[in-house]
Amino acid sequence: MSDRPVTVPNPLTDITGLILAGGQGRRMGGRDKGLELLGGVALVSHVRERLAGRVAEVLISANRHLERYRSLADRVVSDTVGGFQGPLMGIYGGLCAATTPWVLVVPCDTPVLPPDLVERMAAGIGRHRIAVAHDGERLHPVVVLLERALADDLHAALAEGERKVGRWFERHAWTAVDFSDCPEAFDNLNTDEDRRRLEMRLNEESRT
């Protein structure tokens, strides 16, 4: 851990939100997952609701359908290297584009993230350079708050061929942020069956 003083970033001035929507969507037949619908609303729009008005700016990392994504973000960033290189490449693009000292990364396929995600991640960073959400059973490596200043190190790691998010985190002082009170908030949609199951759950919750 760094010996830096404990800091709590101010989300509205110090944190940029980055939604990762640049993947291939292999388990959805190659469809653009961020634009898939849940309850008639694009997944990326559900996620954006958790960030908009809570951070300084919302970026979307996307590699196709850029015009559609531009209507949903303050800015859209694309991978600097083609071929769908994975989330680390999307994170790198977001770190380079951000103008705030911190970037909060979330995936486009987690539509029911906690409404207080931003505040809790900011409160949990402490003296660390990286904070990762933990649902009580496992880490969610792409729900992460990290320093923009890590961009150069991430660039070097990518140039070395690193593509594993967790392995890159281990190079730095990182911590887990406890979300064990709401593990269901990190449910993600990888398949059409996942979507049907989540729609049923949300419909049941809306009736209670």
Question: Can you offer a commentary on this structure?
Answer:
The structure is a single chain. This protein has 208 residues and is α/β, with parallel strands linked by helices. It has a single domain, classed as Spore Coat Polysaccharide Biosynthesis Protein SpsA, Chain A (Alpha-Beta Complex), CATH 3.90.550.10. Helix content is 31%, strand content 21%. The chain is built from 8 helices and 9 strands. The strands form 2 sheets. The chain has a 7-stranded mixed beta sheet, with helices on both faces. A two-stranded antiparallel ribbon has the order 2-3. Strand 7 and strand 8 form a beta hairpin. It is globular, with a radius of gyration of 16 Å.
Question: Tell me, what is the CATH class?
Answer: Alpha Beta
> Whole-Å distance between the termini?
44 Å
Which structural class is indicated by helix and strand composition?
alpha/beta
CATH architecture: Alpha-Beta Complex
For this structure, the quaternary state is single chain
What is the chain-wise order of helices and strands?
HEEEHEHEHEHEEHHEH
CA-based shape = globular
What is the CATH H-level superfamily? Spore Coat Polysaccharide Biosynthesis Protein SpsA, Chain A
| Radius of gyration from the alpha-carbon trace, in angstroms | 16 Å
Q: Please list the strands of the largest sheet in the order they lie side by side.
A: 5-4-1-6-8-7-9
Tally of individual domains: 1
Question: What summary fits the major beta sheet?
Answer: 7 strands, mixed
CATH topology: Spore Coat Polysaccharide Biosynthesis Protein SpsA, Chain A
As residue ranges, the low-confidence spans are: none
Number of helices: 8
